[in-house]
Amino acid sequence: MRHPEILQKAKTALLVVDIQERLIPAISIYPRLEPGILRMIKVAAELGLTTLLTEQYPKGLGSTLASIKEALRAYEPIEKNTFSCCGVDVLQQKLEEAAVEAVVLVGVEAHVCVQQTALDLIAAGIRVHVPADAVASQRKFDWQMAIERMRQAGAIISTGQSIIFELLVEAGTPEFKAVLPLLKEN
């Protein structure tokens, strides 16, 4: 028997939050986060996870970074003005259509859009997993407080690699062999 908090790929989605051209330059640690975010996107594609992407007010903040667009199977951003991604009906519809029970959140800013989305997803009965090494804020203190608040609200805080291994379940499978090179990247 598996613990109910362990992710199951058939019931899990990846949500990439607001990694946009005019927002990312303000996130000084983003260059350290990007490899982990790209890894999560590539693994999600390999495992067939539903992957959703949001853009906060793209007229003002620009579109998603080219590196993220290239890693996605399809570039179909969900545009939003609300800070919570759950403020957009199409996101909720896509989660329902895919029968999602858990969401892995990556992106920025941890204390604004990521946090509000996590809280709303939890309120909707969806389990939230946040890889602490794949979310960021402009200020470290804001990131720290967001991680703590999401944890207190019931989000599972871990790392990208931990999440990937949960989704893989076991070694030696074709999926494991396909994902292994990604796990060896920095």
Write up this protein.
It is a single chain. This protein has about 190 residues and is an alpha/beta fold. The protein has one domain: 3-Layer(aba) Sandwich (Rossmann fold). The protein contains 8 helices and 7 strands, in the order E-H-E-H-H-E-H-E-H-E-E-H-E-H-H. Strands 1, 2, 3, 4, 5, 6 and 7 form a 7-stranded parallel sheet that branches. Helix 1 (about 30-45) runs parallel beside helix 7 (about 160-170) and helix 5 runs parallel beside helix 6. The chain is globular, with a radius of gyration of 15 Å.
Summarize this structure as a short list of keywords or feature phrases.
globular; alpha/beta; Rossmann fold; about 190 residues; 7-stranded parallel beta sheet
Tell me the Rg in angstroms.
Answer: 15 Å
CATH H-level superfamily: Isochorismatase-like
Question: What top-tier CATH class fits best?
Answer: Alpha Beta
Average of per-residue pLDDT values:
96
Fold-level CATH name: Rossmann fold
- List how many beta strands DSSP finds: 7
> Helical region count?
8
Please give the largest β-sheet. 7 strands, parallel
Question: Could you tell me the strand content as a percent range?
Answer: 15-25%
Indicate how many domains the architecture comprises: 1
Tell the overall outline. globular
Distance between the termini: 33 Å
What order do the SSEs take from the amino end to the carboxyl end, as H and E?
Answer: EHEHHEHEHEEHEHH
Unreliable segments (pLDDT under 50, ≥5 consecutive)?
Answer: none
